[in-house]
Amino acid sequence: MRIWTHPISIELLTESHRNTAPERLGMEFLEVGDDFIRGRVPVDERTRQPYGRLHGGVSVVLAETLGSCGAAYSCPPGHQVVGLDINANHLRGPTEGWVTGITRPVHIGRSTQVWQIDMQDDQGRLTCVSRITMAVLSPR
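Structure for Hotdog fold thioesterase, as requested:
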């Protein structure tokens, strides 16, 4: 079942992130399905920590971007969403290639939303699992 309450596409997501941290980190939106968004971030000089692995904070930026977009495009018209909490378990530290994340809703409620984000390296191995909780704000 399609969950989006606003027009959504890769082009709209990409355009809305011009001149933002995700764009500067090289993040790309790849796919929008009926109930998910997929995007990726490169493992390169912009995103590695000093030891050569993907910086954990970059995984969190990918997770927060995907989960926040999911919440924003599935909330009721006129409402806004803001982040309340995010957690991330870093399972593997890739040193090259891309990390691809997919977000799906765990809960879409009237006042909160919870989104799961699973991230994988190019070999399909989990690198990070994250969950974000969003507050849904009513129009003022």
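The CA atoms of residues 10 and 70 lie 12 Å apart.
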